[in-house]
Amino acid sequence: MTNERLTDRKRAAIVQAAVAEFRARGFEATSMDQVAATAEVSKRTLYNHFASKEALFAQILRQLWDRSAARMDLAYRPDLPLAPQLSALLLQKVALVSGADFIDLARVALTATLHSPQRAQDMLQRLAQKENALLTWVCAAQQDGRLKPADPLQVVQQMESLVKGSAFWPQVTLGQPRLGPRMQKQLAADTAELVLSRYAA
Q1: How is residue 178 annotated by DSSP?
Q2: Fold topology of 1-51
Q3: What is the DSSP letter of 7?
Q4: Domain boundaries, the chain
Q5: Where are the alpha helices (DSSP H) in 26-131?
Q6: Percent helix, strand, coil in the chain (nearest 5)?
Q7: 140-151 pLDDT, tens digit each
Q8: Helices 117-129 and 100-113 meet at what angle, rounded to 10?
Q9: Contact 173, 114 (CB under 8 A)
Q10: DSSP state of 115
Q11: CATH classification (class only), 60-199
Q12: Mean pLDDT, rounded, for 170-177
């Protein structure tokens, strides 16, 4: 195994350990010593990768953002009906926010933001920036004359509220079970139908 691969594995182990510690203890109560012990690395190795607990937390958030961006990639198609397009795009969103890893990372992020309003604001702004796929789709459909003129950000926020109100917030804050594949598909289809009943031209 090359040194580079070993370094990558240690970095991944540190992040995984940090998620576990942050979840168990909360952000404020977690120490870098605890993370190093859980990751089974030396403190020197830990600090070689992350200069501070805040830097480590920022890496966890980056994983959250990157997963969100990577999973949303269906472009608007003028030659296809709106409902199956939007339903497919929303299903990607539902599947993402219903994922066990995503929910775990979100819990960590929310725990860390409770004691820092500025951190919470930064988190929400970063999350909003990752909703580009839905926003791009809505704007394209409006420009094509197939959706009524409306504030596209508001349309996306309404879809986000419908999706996360069933597939994300109850699981993150109340510990409710994650939605299975059939319920995810139904939620995506119902949300698309509701949105298009209001906005389809």
Answers
A1: P
A2: Arc Repressor Mutant, subunit A (1.10.10)
A3: H
A4: 1-51, 60-199
A5: 32-39, 43-49, 53-71, 82-98, 100-113, 117-129
A6: 75, 0, 20
A7: 999 999 999 999
A8: 140
A9: no
A10: T
A11: mainly alpha
A12: 92
